[in-house]
Amino acid sequence: MSRAFVFPGQGAQTIGMGRALAEAYPAAKAVFDEVDDALGEKLSRLIWEGEQDELTLTANAQPALMATSIAALRALGAEGVDVSAAAYVAGHSLGEYSALCAAGALSLGDTARLLRLRGAAMQQAVPVGVGAMAALLGLDFDAATAVASEAAQGEVCQAANDNDPAQVVVSGHKGAVERALEIAKAKGAKRAILLPVSAPFHCALMQPAADAMAAALAEVAILAPTVPLVANVRAEAVSDPDLIRALLVEQVTGSVRWRESVLWMVAQGVDTFWEIGAGKALSGMIRRIAKEAECRAVGTPQDVLAATA
Fold first, then answer.
1. What confidence category does residue 87 fall into, taking pLDDT thresholds of 50, 70 and 90?
2. Which of 123, 165, 191, 213 sits at a 20 to 30 Å CA gap from 109?
3. Which domain holds residue 143?
4. Which among 174, 197, 220 is the end of a domain?
5. Which of 197, 215, 248 is the last residue of a domain?
6. pTM > 0.85
């Protein structure tokens, strides 16, 4: 068996996530404490007792999801399974930072601060209402890219997330994305729906956020990960710290090549994927990409015990 640890992205956040882990495992509680200290605020209180709308704000959701993932990983560690049990790590968008923290390339404090900045910069890059994202269901990546190109008409419209064989997300100017909905339906999409997001992630409109991340990442120590990272924008393994730094900047405006990343790992012999943190969205995608793969979500103490039994 060859295993990969994968880490969820935005959308998986829920009030209360990680609390049972923190109550059951001192090592998990220490993660939330360290993230609180790094940010100079009680993010853990928001995660466990706050309002969903506030948690969903990009600047909160990104470090919160990372903290929950690393808490789950530390709980696994307390039961004798650490990141060295994986052949690769990978994460969906912000989950890539969780993966790098898990593999020791970024410190926990730096990861929390980077994600707080990343979330705020992505939110501020485009005024509310100017951009949008939409999921095109039933079209493959090439078809969705063609739809985005046709819809652009001088504005930005890009295929942002290649999630699985029948789900591609497009991102860009609101008018262009709305045109993409109609074009996609005409080209045979089963469904085409606007997503409830606060900004158009992973497209050229995010360039101001990419610039902000380039400046921030230049000041942060990045080590070679102990387990290779399958990078979003490359869909293959990387370990060189300077390349990882560059790809994290490129990732802000580039496509999340999740489908290709999973296929690449399967081609390297990975047959088991553990989704570390909140939710089960990645497991669903992986099952649609590689039907023979075994998937396990690890986000609660019960999940940890079942995984390490």
1. very high
2. 123
3. 131-197
4. 197
5. 197
6. yes
